[in-house]
Amino acid sequence: MDYRYLGNSGLKISEITYGNWLTHGSQVENDMATQCVRAALEAGISTFDTADVYANTKAETVLGEALKGERRESLEIFTKVYWPTGPGGKNDTGLSRKHVMESINGSLQRLQTDYVDLYQAHRYDTETPLEETMQAFADIVRQGKALYIGVSEWTADQIREGVALSRELGFQLISSQPQYSMLWRVIEDEVVPASKELGVSQIVWSPIAQGVLTGKYQPGQKPPEGSRATDEKGGADMIKRFMNDDVLTRVQNLKPVADEAGLTMAQLAVAWVLQNDNVAAALVGASRPEQVHENVKAAGVRLEPELMARIDDVLGDVVERDPARTAENAPRTRVA
């Protein structure tokens, strides 16, 4: 495992980071989830990412149990706040001071820790003054409940505003967590240049495009039974943008490229995002320990420029590059 600095900070994280979004507390039974976490630790993964909204707080509970007994100082634990939790009352969502302060306490209890290494705004809240949110984050950092602050799916302008306020208030906003993969490159034109300028790193989610880049989905065929594309709990909605024959055919044509690199297609996809020097880590989930063992083989891989160019040629115009898609993915109003 290789480790990278997160933003302009002294914090090092594992470049393959274990995420438990669509698995713990919903798709995967607790004992299997624990086996996956153990496999991650054995592979040298020290960084674990979750959120209070995942499985409506259950994912944090499962991760806390799985990490129980580990040396806390050797781990980097990340979580997030924004989306509705609990019964979904009027203040159970967003980035108001009330919701943020209550949410950090709930997350710490479920994760069985005194602090998280990174606390992230899971989306931008258009209905709460940014000053209010940033003041709440500043207080959480001063209380020792979070060491650093990050954001997720914020635009370049929103990141600029957030970093400016964080500096005024005396804490570090060091990370952005966007979707990023060979097929989804919307951060490259605006978010990445702004982040480099501001000392912010990317922790990217869905580097395998919800499983599409593994090549297991064949054009003209039904998705395999039990795959994410058949998951009605949320996975199918997320993956449907890639489930067309043009995309799937081009993905199949990546197989010779992966073979030449000596990688599986999933490893190639993870290695590809890690070639971007603004990416500190690729978030990878797992429903089986074997998937963890396979994914970590992408750590430390260097893809030659000629190979990167071939990937671009194979995928062609199915790649989404429009930076406006970041703003489109954010709620216009606070979700209740």
Would you mind describing this structure in some detail?
InterPro entries: AKR, K_chnl_volt-dep_bsu_KCNAB-rel, NAD(P)_OxRdtase_dom_sf, NADP_OxRdtase_dom. Belongs to the shaker potassium channel beta subunit family. One of its GO terms (cellular component) is cytosol. This is Aldo/keto reductase. The protein has about 325 residues and is α/β, with parallel strands linked by helices. The chain has one domain: TIM Barrel (Alpha-Beta Barrel). The chain has helices spanning about 30-40, 60-65, 95-110, 130-140, 155-170, 190-200, 235-240, 245-250, 255-260, 265-275, 290-295, 305-315, 325-330, and strands at about 5, 10-15, 15-20, 45-50, 75-80, 115-120, 145-150, 175, 200-205, 280-285. The strands form 2 sheets. The protein has an 8-stranded parallel beta barrel with strand order 3-4-5-6-7-8-9-10, surrounded by 5 helices. Strands 1-2 form a two-stranded antiparallel sheet. β1 (about 5) and β2 form a beta hairpin.
